Amino acid sequence: MNTSSYKTNAHYLEISIIAFFVLVACCMFLVYAIDPSIYAQSLSLTTSPEDRYPLPVTLFLVGLLVFIALLIFGVRRHWRWLFWLLLVAFGSSFLHLPATLLQFAGVLPESGPLWYSLLQMSVAVVEVGLAVWMVRIYRNAGAWGMGRRKA
């Protein structure tokens, strides 16, 4: 492959990462609509049964959406530090796969309903795939396919 094809591939990587973040935001809304108590458990909140959508959970969701919007902005602007941060975060997601399998086997305690664990595991698989793609782009065309920095 020549350098221009890696730049095109890097453009597809950028689009894929943004699409991934949009999909994650949609999944967050879906989880919030189906079972907001999952977020309440994650935040160690005690909620009453009549308070289906507690304010701290809603604010947490809004904060996550703002963070995702910032990440999308950084991907569009090709922030090099964000490339490395995403690479480490996506690459370390492979640890979620054996942890979820150990939860299914009963070795580790369950962190939520089965469908939520399967959703987290599928997100981790996509993140690992994106990390592998990012490494490939970096090795051939630098961070975000923008070329390597001159020393």
Walk me through the structure.
The chain is globular. It has one domain. It is mainly α and 151 residues long. α1 packs antiparallel against α3, α1 runs antiparallel to α6 and α5 runs antiparallel to α6.
Major sheet description = none
How far apart are the first and last residues' alpha carbons, in Å? 25 Å
Mean pLDDT across every amino acid position: 88
Low-confidence stretches: none
How much beta, percentage-wise?
A: under 5%
Q: Helical percent range?
A: over 70%
Structural class: mainly alpha
What's the quick description here?
This protein has helices at 3-34, 37-42, 55-76, 80-91, 96-105, 114-141. By secondary structure, the protein is mainly alpha-helical.
Relevant terms:
151 residues, mainly alpha, 6 helices, 0% strand
What does the secondary structure layout of this molecule look like, with pairings?
Elements: H1 3-34, H2 37-42, H3 55-76, H4 80-91, H5 96-105, H6 114-141
